[in-house]
């Protein structure tokens, strides 16, 4: 949990702001998972802070919600072409990928329990960057 929270702080994911009136304030959620190594044994526990984007309303809280998806047939064709022409193929994994996208919409979220700002416990987070669970998160990082 601390590592995940520190990633938010290091990326300036939010600023603490007074709670506005008549605005949808999203709830934070913690997602807990088990991570396994290549041998199938438990390697660590993972916690991810998310927002409850299911309460976001299209055209009110978010302008558009979509993500770029590659069809598997297209991916297979590109890989076949690369193989036949002896091209090098690279892949990458971006850690905390959604935290790299900037938001164009104004989004507020409650402070998560256990991680409240002691100087402003009744304030909320004004999100500066995308967060897992937001409807606009998949397109924001691209």
From TrEMBL:
InterPro entries the record matches: DNA/RNA_pol_sf (IPR043502), RVT_2 (IPR013103)
Annotated Reverse transcriptase Ty1/copia-type domain residues: 11-142
Protein name (Swiss-Prot/TrEMBL): Ribonuclease H-like domain-containing protein
Source organism (scientific name): Tanacetum cinerariifolium (Dalmatian daisy)
